[in-house]
Amino acid sequence: MAAKLQASVSVLALGVALVSGSALAYEQGDMVLRGGIAMVDPDASSSPLAINGSEVAGTSVDVDDNTQLGITFTYMLSDDVGVEVLAATPFSHTVSAKGLGDEFDAIDLKHLPPTVSVQYFPMDSAAKFQPYVGVGLNYTIFFDEELTSEFKANVDDGSVKLDDSFGLAFELGCDYELSDNLVLNAAIWTIDIDTEATIKLDSGAKVTTDVDIDPLVYMVGVGYKF
Ligand code: NI
């Protein structure tokens, strides 16, 4: 009788464990790997172009948007708090010059904006819908910068370099649990990316401008929880 009861309790306990195991969407130690499409949409502003240190009034630069593959990985430090890394394939942008006649493409560049954020998940662990907010640090590395043929035709040949940027990032996102392991994800970041572009012309002149790229980054995708 006692053994039978014990067996029943064990079966019941196992049943509860299985049910609660599948119902707990987010808990300490969980990892979520998400992949999807990520778009960097700059909200750029810049100082006037400075030639050998003297600013040319009315000039500025702009930066176009670009879409790549994005990956985020979250590790849950507790049931409510996670730490996330954002990575992507390199983004390619064109920087255009304004105020020197008609706007023209001036610089092609690539960058990687790895971002580490601390995330807060306010919903109960069992909720299928898991919105989150995050705050983090971004390090943006620019590479493969080159002057466009339009720049060379309009101005001069030369070389260009953009400084790396270190700044704050804020994030809003949500995961929706499709099954025990699969989630749908959407997220948006606003990232403070500020850089100085320096162009060394073959003539010997130096052209500089401070650029606030400050993009919104959008990502939609699917995630695997394990
Ligand atoms: Ni900024």
Description:
The protein has one domain (2-225): Porin, CATH 2.40.160. The strands form two sheets. The chain has an eight-stranded antiparallel β-barrel with strand order 1-6-7-10-11-13-14-17. Strands 2, 3, 4, 12, 15 and 16 form a six-stranded antiparallel beta sheet that branches. It is mainly β. The protein contains two helices and 17 strands. Strand 3 and strand 4 (54-55) form a beta hairpin. It binds nickel (II) ion (NI). Nickel (II) ion is lined by residues 192, 194, 212, 214.
What is the overall pLDDT average?
Answer: 91
Q: What's the tally of helices?
A: 2
Unreliable spans are 14-22
* Strands side by side in the biggest sheet: 1-6-7-10-11-13-14-17
- The first-level CATH class is given as Mainly Beta
What is the CATH architecture assignment?
Answer: Beta Barrel
Largest sheet: 8 strands, antiparallel, barrel
The proportion of strand residues reads over 45%
What is the number of E strands? Answer: 17
Shape field = elongated
Radius of gyration: 24 Å
Count of discrete structural domains: 1
Structural class: mainly beta
Determine the fraction of residues in helical runs and give it as a percent range: 10-25%
Molecules bound to protein: nickel (II) ion
